[in-house]
Amino acid sequence: MTRFVLLAVLLLVVVWAFSRFLDGIIEAFGGLPNRSRSKTPVKLVRDPVCGTWIAPQNSLGLRAGDVTHYFCSDQCRDLFRKNKSTAPGS
């Protein structure tokens, strides 16, 4: 019984290694990218109202002069607008 289990584990490892090898060859020749690698890290920005970290492409932006502020929700963006318009010197 022990031999059978060890042979099954060995077979699984060999099949796994072979599939990884084939994925590498396919990727090297311009095939599909390797799914096991993580994607390029996304640079996160901080919501100036609540402090939530968000990806710029998934956020709501508001341009104020030369600076773009990013918000996680309509509520944060509206609160920022309200505070900006009531601030002294605005």
Q: Tell me the radius of gyration.
A: 26 Å
Q: Estimate the mean pLDDT confidence.
A: 85
Low-confidence stretches: none
Secondary structure category:
alpha+beta
- Count up the domains: 2
Q: Report the biggest beta sheet as strand number plus sense, adding barrel if it closes.
A: 2 strands, antiparallel
Protein model, in words:
The chain is of the alpha+beta class and 90 residues long. The protein folds into two domains: 1-37, no CATH class; 45-86, Ribosomal Protein L24e, Chain: T (Roll). It contains two helices and four strands; from the N terminus they run H-E-E-E-E-H. The protein has a two-stranded antiparallel sheet with strand order 1-2. A two-stranded antiparallel ribbon has the order 3-4. A hairpin with a 6-residue loop joins strand 1 and strand 2 (53-54). The model has no long low-confidence stretch (mean pLDDT 85).
Main features:
two-stranded antiparallel ribbon; alpha+beta; 2 domains; Ribosomal Protein L24e, Chain: T; 44% helix; 16% strand; 2 helices; 90 residues
Compact overview of the structure:
The protein is an alpha+beta fold and 90 residues long.
Reconstruct the topology from this structure.
Blueprint: H1 2-28, E1 45-46, E2 53-54, E3 60-64, E4 67-71, H2 74-86
Antiparallel strand pairs: 1-2, 3-4
